[in-house]
Amino acid sequence: MVEYKSIQEAMDQGEGKIAIRGWVHRERGSNKLKFIVLRDSSNTIQCVLKKDNFENSWDDIDHVQIETSMRLEGTIKKDDRAPTGYEIQVEKYEIVGESDSYPITKDQSKEFLADNRHLWLRSRRMTSILKIRSTYVQARDEFFRLKKFFRFDSPILQPSQCEGGSTLFEVKYYKDKLYLAQSWQLYAEAAVFSLEKIYNMGPTFRAEKSRTSRHLCEFWMAEAEVAWADLNEITELAKEELKFCIKKVIGERSEELKFLGRDPEILKLVVEKDWPTIKYREALKVLKEKCGMDVPFGKDLRTVEEEELMKHFDVPVVVTHYPTKVMAFYKPADEEVKDEALCFDMLAPEGYGEIVGGSQRSTDIKEMTKKLEAEGEDIKNYEWYFDLRKYGSVPHSGYGVGVERVVKWMCGLDSIKDVIPFPRTPDRFIP
Fold first, then answer.
1. How many helices (H) and strands (E) does the chain have?
2. Same-domain check for residues 147 and 49
3. Which tens digits make up the pLDDT trace of 173-207?
4. How many CA atoms lie within 13 A of 219 on its CB side?
5. What are phi and psi of 219, to 5 degrees?
6. How far apart are CA 349 and CA 86, in angstroms?
7. CB under 8 Å to 301, separation ≥6 — which residues?
8. Mean pLDDT confidence for 128-145
9. 102 within a domain of the structure (yes/no)
10. How far apart are CA 138 and CA 248, in angstroms?
11. Global pTM?
12. Residue range(s) defining the domain that contains residue 176
């Protein structure tokens, strides 16, 4: 049996006999030589086939095209002229899967690449982004295991809204009507009375008509919920989590960040600094005094206000105590300042906007009932949720991290559609 190594493992070996397998990333040649740049998930390497060694099969070799899958055996050596510094002199080859006129070439439009997303995933750009995304998600698991959190998974099909009825996706459920999850939160609040410290990551659905570079109809939310925690404790946990994950990405994916044009040193400086926490009213003051924007109290911050505010910070900022009247039913008022809610958003620098949102959770059934009735909600759908406040309730808090938004910021990308394998928007659900 031939023992195949990844391309990176082959380059780490540096010299001697080697066997690799992968897909043709680039190819060129003459009537005497064929140069094939082979790729796998780890890296790319230049492979040279000489006609003198393959007289009987040269026609097949000469017609090898991009994305042909191959197995190659030969001798690897260092060569500074090669694209990644190493070259393999091929002694044996096998074409596993032929490729004919691969449709993705240079200078393709964004729409064309979106139509061919199933193939565009093979590009070095998408491979780099997806590696960074994977490392980030795995780092998050590690963070919460070290913190002795339990993973808790909640239902995707839910009977009621959590973040506003206008963005619900309705689903026919036999003879009834359900909705795709906007958040795990309501169910997580049930679980903290059992497990106390929990986290998860799951698909999230928002039927928003927005077509901006920051919105998706289907995305992944990484959430946490903690019993006994107040607003200050939960915001500090969110900061700690993000810093831990970014450090992991820098440590393991610097080459991918550089390939995308993102300097890892910029992220390293961000992680080393303190991330401030300011109140919404302080944010309005900054906007007025430094940006000339007179935003009235009670107005939620839009993208334009967030971008202007963050021009004055080079690290993420936690903004707390948004106006109570524009917040969700489960976000309680501050006992000392009733028009402020015990909630927060974390805003990323460089114009990337909100990446985390959370709050302390209300324990006041009467107040939550009043808000839900004002929104036209059927209170019967929330009776189980109110039960959580009737039987040994405790203060508790939680937050959700927009996975795609964090990855977009870390990679320094323009569109959130680039950081998810198959983006779902109001205009696109294929492939």
1. 13, 16
2. no
3. 999 999 999 999 999 999 999 999 999 999 999 99
4. 28
5. -150, 180
6. 39
7. 280, 283, 295, 309, 319, 322, 345
8. 98
9. no
10. 9
11. 0.94
12. 117-419
